[in-house]
Structures are given as C-alpha cells and as structure tokens.
C-alpha cells in the first residue's frame, strides 16, 4: 500500500469506477468526481497528493484546452501538486505543452493497469520528495529567523521589553546574581532561561527550582542533598539541586516564600559557595550562577522584618522588573499571534488571524493574569474556534469595566471599543498623554487625533 491519496477527475462514470476499483488496492485513499468545477471544494476537504485529470469534458471536445486550463488552476492553488493528465486522443504536441505547463506525466486511455500503477508510483515518490524539500525549506527559513532574532522566547517590541533585552545583553555573560521581579504570569521563568541561554554557562544545566512548591521539611534535602541513613527513607546518597546544577545556572523561583530559618540556610550556602548534605559534615564546593524570582515586594518585606536584608543584597546584584501585560499594550497582538500560530500547529487547525473585533477586545481587556492568561485564552480560543479566524466570541472574555461604570462588550462596534480604550488609558494615567500613548502603542500625535475624533 502506497502512502498517498489520489483524486481522479473524469466525466465518464466507467472510467471513475475502473480507476477507483483498481487504485484503492494500492493507495490510501481514492477520491473521484465528474466535474473539475468541484476541484476547489475537494482540495480543501481532502489531503490530496496526486491528481489524475482528464483533458476534455465537453461532448466531442478533443483539443485538451479544458485540461490545460484546470491544470493551471490546480497549480495556482499549490504548485507542488502532482498532476497527471489523461486523454483518449494521443497527441505528442499536446503532451509536450502539458509538461511545460507543469504536468508531471501524461497517460492515454484506455490504460493498462501496470502502466497506470507505475506512473502513479513514480508520481507518489515525486510528491514525497517535494514534501521533504518543502519541509527542509521551512526548517531552513525558521533557523534563519531564529539566528536573526536574538531572543527566541521573549516576544515583544514595546519600550519596556526593549529596555529589558538591552539589560539582558549586558548581564547575561557575567556571573552576577539576578533577581527578577514581576506579577504572576509576566514571564519570569522565560527571562531566567534567556539569561542562562546567553551566558557562558549555556552548555551546562539550567536547574529550575520552585521554592513555593517545596515542603519546608524537604527544603534542605532537595536543595543540598542527603547522605544514606540521614533519615528513615534515605536509602542512598543523593546530591541536591545545587550540586546537580554545578557549572550551570540555578533558578530559585518564588524566593519570597522562604521562611526566615530557610533564608539563613540559603544565605550561608551563597556566602560560602559550599553545600553540606544532610547527615554529613563534609562541605562540597559548588560553582553555580544564581537567578531568583518572586512576585512579592521584597523591599517592603525587609522593612517589616520578614525577609533578610543581607540575603536580598546577596541575590539582587542586578534587578529586573518585568512589566505587566497592561503596561506593554503594543505587544498584546504580537503575543496573541505568536500563541495563535503555536496552538494552531499543536491542535492541527488552520487558524491564521483574529477578526478586528477580537483584536480590539484583546487590547481592551486589562489582563490581570498577564502573558500566562493571554496564552490560556488563545489556546482555548483555538480549540473552540470553528472557522479560519478567531472571533470575539471565541475568546470567551468576561465583560470588563473601564473608567466609571463603562463596560466593554464583544458586541460593541470597533469605534466604540476604541473610544473606551483611549478613555481608559487617559484616566489610568491621569491625563498624562505620553504615558497613555505608550500603553496604547501610539505616538502622541496619533493619540491627540483620537482624542479630537472622539471628543474626549
């Protein structure tokens, strides 16, 4: 059985029946139709590899013009389709003309089954070869884009993101300890990994430790390791996360959740650059680059006495403050399209853009969950969408309040949505046009034009 799907187009029922009975023994799928006018529908609903196309459809016609016309039409849809033309009238000149216009081969009716099978087998190999070349071209193009794009995972062109990228370029090659601050869902782990990827330790391990999920009783054993017999279930020696990350980067997420006794133990490790496994007295040297992150206000916690000031000094040689998604408004559609492409591929959908109303709704929503919430919203929309575009209804966003009691609804017109967005930004920044324009991704002049347009 050949892994290919064949479409046969001929106005003769006997030809279609004969082709279907023979070819279905050798190919995955055989689709037949009497009229080439059905080509668009058939190609959009079926994964076709080879098209066997008759050259004449009008009664008494023998010049092959119809076949040449539909050949050009098929190749205009996708130049990689493999088309084999067939006719009851042998004409060398017509065959040459068909090959010049892009046909793969030419076969006479009535055919010999062996000859037909050999022709379609060769066509199938050509189709598979074309697919591989196309795939390689896409991979090559993707690699070129990745090489040209310095930050593979950081998506954004807004001023706050560009500033963070510039800082990352300077900090990444050093061994400076970095503290990443930001609300939940702003991408702290993404930035931590980018720091590692652009560091001199990039060929070594990147160890992510979520301190918020670690039980306090397991903190020492998980981070520093333990010796055999150190406690009831310690049946073997086990290195901790710091040892495993030796030579690489250790990322301690949610560091603000540490209790003060655990803060003291972590500080000792960072100061001495050694760890001691539970149940041992031997100190083991470690060589790691430390990155930490939290959504908690550490400076306020230091003032309240709930976070050690000396530990804060140790971990924040460089501090990165990640903006919330609402502060990088011009990145929202860029990120949404990035997630749309990713999830469309994951779920085998052909979604390629957002309807205008959907884009306006994305821009109007205040995104309390930041980039992570946007990612989840787009994933759900891709799963639920029926067409080729994401509609405002697919987003399933709850109505949100803007300004006083103003509420934005998916049914609103585009201008009404835009007016609310502009009013919201101006109110939020208390009339500061520069800041409002930055949030909306507009120039000051463009924002002034909208203020005048909407009489705000």
UniProtKB/TrEMBL annotation:
CDD domains in UniProt: AAA (cd00009)
Residue ranges annotated for the Response regulatory domain, each copy included: 5-124
Modified sites of kind 4-aspartylphosphate: 54
Keywords carried by this UniProt record: Activator, ATP-binding, DNA-binding, Nucleotide-binding, Phosphoprotein, Transcription, Transcription regulation
InterPro entries tied to this protein: AAA+_ATPase, AAA_lid_NorR, CheY-like_superfamily, Homeodomain-like_sf, HTH_Fis, P-loop_NTPase, Sig_transdc_resp-reg_receiver, Sigma_54_int
Pfam families: AAA_lid_14, HTH_8, Response_reg, Sigma54_activat
SUPFAM superfamilies: CheY-like, Homeodomain-like, P-loop containing nucleoside triphosphate hydrolases
Ranges for domain Sigma-54 factor interaction: 154-383
Any one biological process term the GO annotation gives: phosphorelay signal transduction system
MF term (GO), any: ATP binding
Protein name per Swiss-Prot or TrEMBL: Sigma-54-dependent Fis family transcriptional regulator
Species of the source: Pedobacter steynii
């Amino acid at each position: 059985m050949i892994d290919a799907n064949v479409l046969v187009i001929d106005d003769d029922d006997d030809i279609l029946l004969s082709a279907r009975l023979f070819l279905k023994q050798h190919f995955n799928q055989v689709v037949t139709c009497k009229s080439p006018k059905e080509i668009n529908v058939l190609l959009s609903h079926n994964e076709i590899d080879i098209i066997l196309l008759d050259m004449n459809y009008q009664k008494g016609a023998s010049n092959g013009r119809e076949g040449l016309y539909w050949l050009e039409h098929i190749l205009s849809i996708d130049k990689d389709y493999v088309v084999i033309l067939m006719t009851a009238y042998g004409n060398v000149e017509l065959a040459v003309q068909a090959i010049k216009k892009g046909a793969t081969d030419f076969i006479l009716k009535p055919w010999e089954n062996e000859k037909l099978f050999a022709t379609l087998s060769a066509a199938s190999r050509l189709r598979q070869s074309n697919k591989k070349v196309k795939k390689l071209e896409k991979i090559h193009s993707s690699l070129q884009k990745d090489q040209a794009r310095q930050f593979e995972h950081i998506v954004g062109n807004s001023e706050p993101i560009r500033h963070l990228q510039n800082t990352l370029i300077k900090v990444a090659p050093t061994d400076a300890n970095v503290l990443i601050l930001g609300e939940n869902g702003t991408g702290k782990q993404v930035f931590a990994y980018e720091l590692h990827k652009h560091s001199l330790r990039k060929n070594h391990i990147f160890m992510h430790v979520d301190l918020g999920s670690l039980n306090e009783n397991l903190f020492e054993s998980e981070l520093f390791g333990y010796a055999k017999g150190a406690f009831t279930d310690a049946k073997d020696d086990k290195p901790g996360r710091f040892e495993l990350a030796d030579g690489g980067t250790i990322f301690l997420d949610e560091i603000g959740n540490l209790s003060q006794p655990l803060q003291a133990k972590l500080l000792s490790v960072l100061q001495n650059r050694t760890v001691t496994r539970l149940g041992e007295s031997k100190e083991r040297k470690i060589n790691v680059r430390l990155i930490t992150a939290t959504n908690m206000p550490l400076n306020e916690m230091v003032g309240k006495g709930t976070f050690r000031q000396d530990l804060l000094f140790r971990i924040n040689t460089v501090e990165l403050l990640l903006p919330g998604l609402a502060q990088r408004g011009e990145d929202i559609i860029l990120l949404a399209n990035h997630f749309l492409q990713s999830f469309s591929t994951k779920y085998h959908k052909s979604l390629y853009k957002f309807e205008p109303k959907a884009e306006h709704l994305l821009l109007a929503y205040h995104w309390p969950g930041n980039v992570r919430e946007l990612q989840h919203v787009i994933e759900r929309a891709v799963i639920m969408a029926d067409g080729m575009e994401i509609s405002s209804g697919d987003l399933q966003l709850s109505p949100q309040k803007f300004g006083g009691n103003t509420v934005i609804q998916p049914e609103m017109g585009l201008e009404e949505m835009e007016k609310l967005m502009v009013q919201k930004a101006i109110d939020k920044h208390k009339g500061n046009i520069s800041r409002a324009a930055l949030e909306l991704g507009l120039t000051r002049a463009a924002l002034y034009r909208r203020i005048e347009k909407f009489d705000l």
